[in-house]
Amino acid sequence: MGLTAVLTPAEEGGYVALNPETGTTTQGKTVEEAVANLREATALYLHQNPDTPTCHPTGVPWAPAQRTPRMLSYRHAFHAGNDVDVFKHVALCALISALERKDKPFLYVETHAGAGFYTRRSRRAQETSEAALGIRLLWPPMGVDPLQPALATYLSEVQRCNGTGGLKRYPGSPWFAQALLRAADRAVLAELHPVDHGKLVRLLRGDKRMTVVQQDGYALLRALLPPIERRALVFIDPSYETRDELGRLHAALVDGRQRFANGVYAIWYPVGTKHAADSIVAHVTRAARTGVRPSKTLDIRWERAQAHVRGDATEGLRGAGLVIINPPFGLDETLPKELEAVVARLEPGARRGRVRAAWTVPESA
Predict the structure, then answer these.
(1) Which of 237, 244, 299, 332 is catalytic?
(2) Residues 9 and 86 in one domain
(3) pLDDT tens by residue, 86-112
(4) Which residues pair with 6 in a beta bridge?
(5) CA angle centred on 111, ends 108 and 112, rounded to 5°
(6) Which of 26, 79, 235, 297 could pair with 73 as two cysteines, CB 3.0-4.6 Å apart?
(7) Are 334 and 293 part of one and the same domain?
(8) Distance between first and last Cα of the chain
(9) CATH number at residue 332
(10) Which of 16, 36, 70 is the last residue of a domain?
(11) How far apart are CA 349 and CA 347, in angstroms?
């Protein structure tokens, strides 16, 4: 008897594979790739949980069905440089820059870091071709309004990642963090996937500001908060593919705020996936209201005027959002304007979606 794999088509293309005995979940562009990733994820899960009982005759250990994974096998490489990546990374540049308006150093924490950069000519990138609807529409960088500093910084770093010779690579969020953090700031980046973790270690090796750990990002917050700097930006970018993701996100935010209520917590989310965007925002909002004093919370969301349809006739993501607990002062006014400029390039036609900013926990709460 072999490994059980339950396969379902993913909304963003490809397949999601679930092992019901352990709860591990992965994705792949083909059935074969999804199953191969599932075997890798389940092996890592079992390695990290040595108390798993019994084995099948095949030698494959099985965990109780009620257990859930502590590992995300979502690979950022499938979606590197797509439209929601552009939205997310411009927002991240704006967030880091906003925290740097004060001289005091801060801690940057990333719970789902990925590999740091991605080669656009890789098999995964070529299979999805999602960058054609993202960074390709902003490339080559030209004509950036000086009143859009986050967009200018973002494009500058994409260009630095590629050097000369065209758009060959796309930087992930750790790349932008390393570029923007100051000498006195520091970062701790968590990535569980062994391949992506190894790539990230090699990318950041030698930079004493940057620490990379192969650890569950949510659990990592308990060890890091409160930070010695007394200032922190926690960037959470999960795949939303595991059964208990929203519950774990909510619990991590509640615990994080109990340890460090003044931290800035930024949670990215997709619009148009199996988890409704409103449900994700509601979980974050409830966490922000938990405790003696609620934390002001800002939701910034972009939804396309019309969802794009892929070559296989499936519908892609409709947009993305970022819900921010304790956003830096003035971000509710400056960031939506910057993101509107991004959307104008991502949706160049007459019909265009809009960027909406709303306080889910008002400043006066």
Answers:
(1) 237
(2) no
(3) 999 999 999 999 999 999 999 999 999
(4) 18
(5) 120
(6) 26
(7) yes
(8) 56
(9) 3.40.50.150
(10) 70
(11) 6
Contacts of 164 (CB under 8 A, 6+ apart): none
Length of the chain (residues): 365
d(CA 171, CA 116): 6
Please say which residue of 36, 52, 70 terminates a domain: 70
The whole-number pLDDT of residue 69 equals: 35
Query: C-alpha angle with apex 139: 135 to 144, nearest 5 degrees?
Result: 105
Residue 185 known to be catalytic: no
SS3 of the chain: the string is CCCCCEEEECCCCCEEEECCCCCCEEEECCHHHHHHHHHHHHHHHHHHCCCCCCECCCCCECCCCCCCCCCCCCCHHHCCCCHHHHHHHHHHHHHHHHHCCCCCCCEEEECCCCCCEEECCCHHHHHHCHHHHCHHHHCCCCCCCCCCHHHHHHHHHHHHHHCCCCCCEEECHHHHHHHHCCCCCEEEEECCCHHHHHHHHHHHCCCCCEEEECCCHHHHHHHHCCCCCCCEEEEECCCCCCCCHHHHHHHHHHHHHHHCCCCEEEEEEEECCCCCHHHHHHHHHHHHHCCCCCCCEEEEEEECCCCCECCCCCECCCEEEEEEECCCCCHHHHHHHHHHHHHHHHCCCCCCCEEEEEEEECCCC
pLDDT of residue 350: 63
Q: What stretches in the chain show pLDDT beneath 50?
A: 1, 11, 52-74, 125, 127-128
In contact, 218 and 248? CB cutoff 8 Å: yes
Q: Do 64 and 200 fall within a single domain?
A: no
CA separation for the pair 172, 78 (Å, rounded): 12
Q: Helix 245-259 to helix 217-224 angle, to the nearest 10 degrees?
A: 10
22 lies in which domain range?
1-70
Token pair of 197 as six digits: 């973790």
User: Which amino acid makes up residue 119?
Assistant: T
- Identify whether residues 132 and 191 lie together within a single domain: yes
Q: Token match 């959470």: residue?
A: 236
Q: Name the residue type at position 47.
A: H
Question: Could you tell me if 131 and 269 lie in one domain?
Answer: yes
Backbone angles phi, psi at 159, to 5 degrees: -65, -40
